[in-house]
Amino acid sequence: xxxxxxxxxxxxxxxxxxxxxxxxxxxxxxxxxxxxxxxxxxxxxxxxxxxxxxxxxxxxxxxxxxxxxxxxxxxxxxxxxxxxxxxxxxxxxxxxxxxxxxxxxxxxxxxxxxxxxxxxxxxxxxxxxxxxxxxxxxxxxxxxxxxxxxxxxxxxxxxxxxxxxxxxxxxxxxxxxxxxxxxxxxxxxxxxxxxxxxxxxxx
Length: 203
Fold this sequence. Notes:
Blueprint: H1 15-25, H2 32-57, H3 72-92, E1 95-98, H4 103-117, E2 122-124, E3 127-137, E4 146-154, E5 157-165, H5 176-192
Helix pairs in contact: 2-3
């Protein structure tokens, strides 16, 4: 389900390079397929700017002030575009939850937490440190679009991300699964890991 974000499959040795990158940069490697949605927002915006400028400064009666209203359209679309880019950017980044535990114990903590949540879990075929949860379809209107929650066990911390598989919408929907699970996991870490009392839980 995460083939558009993280290398998947039993022969994808590149997952180790992805993991190293994520742990250092706290976001997915920016491959071409991840940049396509950004272009889907930026290209129409530039086209709208060009069209509006042509109407404003092109041929026409200078006394006709109605043409200046065309400048409002790029402003509105810019606001919508920035909101869309912000939401999409959030799907590429990882939050950090500090555990104060080594990687093995962080992995065990994730496994225990997910068992307690009674959710179906997918482990990555190339790394037992990667846990994935796939939601039910987001809505009846979105087809088979689902939110994918990714948890990565690391030294002293857990990395958390969510994104949407099979997304055909321009605007990324709210990450409801992430909000719920992140809050629950923070509480679980606080109760299960005494070491975390001396560290900031997240940033």
